[in-house]
What we know:
Pfam families: Ldh_2
Helix content: 25-40%
CATH architecture of the largest domain: 2-Layer Sandwich
Keywords: Oxidoreductase
Number of domains: 2
Order of helices and strands: EHHHEEHEHEEEHEEHEHEHHEH
Organism: Pelosinus fermentans B4
Shape: globular
Largest sheet: 7 strands, mixed
Protein name: Malate/L-lactate dehydrogenase
GO molecular function: oxidoreductase activity
Number of strands: 12
Strand content: 15-25%
Structural class: alpha+beta
Oligomer: single chain
Strand order of the largest sheet: 2-3-4-11-5-6-7
CATH class of the largest domain: Alpha Beta
Amino acid sequence: MSSEQNIFSVSSLHQFVVQVLVKAGVPIADSEIVADNLLKADLWGVGTHGISRFPRYLMRIKDGSINSRPAITINKLWPALLAVDGDNGLGSVVAVKAMEAAIKAADSFGLCAVGVRGSNHFGTAGFYCDLAAKRNYLAIVFTNALSAIPPWGGKEAYLGTNPIAIGFPRLAKNPVIIDLATSIVARGKIITAAKQGLSIPEGWALDKEGRPTTNAEEALLGMILPMAGPKGYALALAVDHLSGVLTGAAFGKDVASYSGTHNQADVGHLIIVIKIDGFISMADYYERTEKFCEEIKAVEKAAGVGEIYLPGEREQILEKSLLVKGIEIPNKLLAELKDIAHEYGVPLVGA
């Protein structure tokens, strides 16, 4: 099959995801959120968190391990401290509603922290920071995840890849979006390599006996190494504590374990939102932010470097391009999507 046949417009993929989810029992407004979230990852070049996750989301809805119509509750514990129970809903739906609640509270109190439990995989963490930044809020987002990283010195996975995302607004420009896993690489990249029968670079992972491996399948049975050695381990630990222990969600090996009597992922998130004019005026904030960004980009470049990019900038450039060109779907994923199209009676239309 030629690659041209694998190119799909963003609008057609969005429509497909929404229509399938609605047929699977998800309300249309929630389906729109999930489609936005998945496709933003693909537009940013993070295919491991994009529409490739859609078949697994559907599988979880079908087997009852994700609630398609959750009764999400938001409890106001303190004026600027909220607790959200996602009722095992789709992670992006839970997180967007938590973010909306955080923004509303921050309007009154300058900032808000929201602890979330009872959630699921929520896609790329930067998605939520981008939503907030485009509404003039600075956001910090943490989430825990399935065990994949050993404690430093251990040979058994305990912590998740546990990402950290921070986004801050700019005036009439794309926000700066920092989004990084605390593992040396996102687990999704190893999953993709395993599906394609490819090896992975040295230094990414250990097998189940704690030995270095370049075999992607052995890595998935073993563990991923933390970024920056013990520093990455410390950050992964902190994120699991903030997202899981602190919020009442699962933590450590209990996150998305689906073992024994567990039938829910119980992923935890912590979302912090700050008004950008909380300390200084909005005009001053924007002026200082532009000065900051311009000075960074104007730093003298190392040999062979054409441009210094701000975090998230390359992803935003790619997004602009792919919105025009469309998104290429790998053959194996395309086969899965065609099966879904047949099962749900929803056409999968190309570019």
